[in-house]
């Protein structure tokens, strides 16, 4: 021990390491692979520096030094490993809206999401820099994504995957409707199909472009849309372009929190182009009646929030 305590007698390289490691040594010995590898390195250094001839007394002192160095080295590696950050599982948050409800959310990266009625959004409690910013959507939402070229923003919605770096766009993805859509307001958006674990690129969209993806047929179409209509629903404006009446009713059900009862299949063939802005549900129904040439009839049960619809059809 005196040999080690005297820097003049001890190897200067080992003395500094040993002194620090000995002070920080823990009572338990570390037998991990890292510690064993570190010990092997020390032994190699010892073998390289060991003189060819030693007196018995010198060898005893050197052996004592080796014992302490080994113990100190194991303690040092234990201390070093204790300083490594412990992986923390990322928590996931979610928000579900009810019929007639829509909310504004701020994600951990400061991106803004307007979540539509009857929708669910799931996202991690934080995004790691340089990693994918992945979230999941069921329903409708308009995104204003913060630009980050090193961390692509990905929205998973059923079999459809939307990837951006920083832009604003709308996703409509209600599973029961059978058709999903992605419409771009600003920037560029890449849309892919994730089918049976295989990712297939479908299209790159720019402002004013809209992709319709058909769930059963697994095909899609791309069309143009007015930029002002991409997120019109946020301001209570709904635009329908050549949409079948049953599908219009599905959207109205969600946003007005009502239930439609169709008394005849003749109405399934009715298709309309219409825009409703800040209209009450009674005003909307009256406009639909007029557009049908007054062939569609309806009755609103306010107490039960039910609208019964019948008529001769639209042919």
TrEMBL record:
Cross-referenced Pfam families: FecR, FecR_C
Source domain of life: Bacteria
Residue ranges annotated for the Protein FecR C-terminal domain, each copy included: 238-308
Domain FecR protein: 96-189
Chain segments annotated as transmembrane: 59-79
GO molecular function: sigma factor antagonist activity
Name of the molecule in the record: Ferric-dicitrate binding protein FerR, regulates iron transport through sigma-19
Phylogenetic lineage: Bacteria, Pseudomonadati, Bacteroidota, Sphingobacteriia, Sphingobacteriales
């Amino acid at each position: 021990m005196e040999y080690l305590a005297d820097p003049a007698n001890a190897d200067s390289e080992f003395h500094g390491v040993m002194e620090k490691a000995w002070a920080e040594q823990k009572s338990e010995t570390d037998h991990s692979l890292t510690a064993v590898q570190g010990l092997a390195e020390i032994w190699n250094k010892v073998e390289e520096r060991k003189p060819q001839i030693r007196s018995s007394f010198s060898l005893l002192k050197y052996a004592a030094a080796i014992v302490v160095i080994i113990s100190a080295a194991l303690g040092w590696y234990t201390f070093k490993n204790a300083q490594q950050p412990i992986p923390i599982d990322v928590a996931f948050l979610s928000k579900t809206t009810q019929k007639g409800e829509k909310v504004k959310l701020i994600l951990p990266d400061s991106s803004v999401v307007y979540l539509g009625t009857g929708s669910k959004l799931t996202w991690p409690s934080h995004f790691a820099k340089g990693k994918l910013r992945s979230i999941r959507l069921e329903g409708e939402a308009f995104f204003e994504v913060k630009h980050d070229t090193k961390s692509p923003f990905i929205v998973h919605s059923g079999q459809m995957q939307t990837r951006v770096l920083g832009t604003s766009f709308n996703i409509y993805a209600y599973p029961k409707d059978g058709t999903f859509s992605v419409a771009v307001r600003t920037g560029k958006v890449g849309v892919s199909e994730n089918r049976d674990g295989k990712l297939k690129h479908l299209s790159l969209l720019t402002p004013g472009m809209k992709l319709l993806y058909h769930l059963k047929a697994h095909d899609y179409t791309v069309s143009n849309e007015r930029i002002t209509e991409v997120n019109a629903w946020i301001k209570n404006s709904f635009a329908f372009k050549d949409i079948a009446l049953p599908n219009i009713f599905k959207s109205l059900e969600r946003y007005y929190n009502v239930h439609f009862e169709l008394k005849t299949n003749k109405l399934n063939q009715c298709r309309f182009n219409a825009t409703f802005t800040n209209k009450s549900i009674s005003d909307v129904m009256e406009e639909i009646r007029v557009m049908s040439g007054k062939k569609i009839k309806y009755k609103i049960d306010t107490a039960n929030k039910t609208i019964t619809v019948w008529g001769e059809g639209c042919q």
